[in-house]
Amino acid sequence: MAKSKDAEKPDMAWRLIGAVVALGVGYGARKAIEFGWQKTTGKKPPADPNSLETGLAEAIGFAVVLGVGMEVARIVATRTAHKRYQSWKTISGKVERAVKD
Question: What is the pTM of this model?
């Protein structure tokens, strides 16, 4: 079955909303993870994981926690925002049809 062009490409409004949500959540998640790292370990997160002054285990540990934490936060926030956007589009479409009738 052939797909319609609308099904293949998300609309521009969602692409913009998704990008803003991802950036905001990424920033917030990073700050929260850095705060949690400092409270848990008692040390500031490594500023430069490539520095030889940073231990290998600490650099890898922080990279894993930061990567997984930020990606999970991004996925959850983007999916939630997409569901809200889809419900808003559905409601606004129904209102538009009701006004036309």
Answer: 0.71
